[in-house]
Amino acid sequence: MTENEIAKIVWDICFRIHNVLGPGLLESVYEEILVYELNKLDLSLERQKSIPVVWESLKL
User: Fold this and answer.
1) Per residue in 4-48, pLDDT tens?
2) 41 and 6 in contact (C-beta within 8 Å)?
3) Distance CA 60, CA 58 (A)
4) Which member of 31, 36, 43, 52 has the lowest number of beta carbons within 10 Å of its beta carbon?
5) CA separation for the pair 30, 18 (Å, rounded)
């Protein structure tokens, strides 16, 4: 599956979620539903993966 195909799947799911629930909910709600929908399609994913960030010598 290409990146464009994956992007279209994600976009379609996000669009459907937004149309049903509308704006204003916590991001975690939308994330939970998106993960649920992607898992139904047997797509593998990693949630909220940590990445190292340095800000003014402070490692976050």
Assistant:
1) 999 999 999 999 999 999 999 999 999 999 999 999 999 999 999
2) no
3) 6
4) 52
5) 8
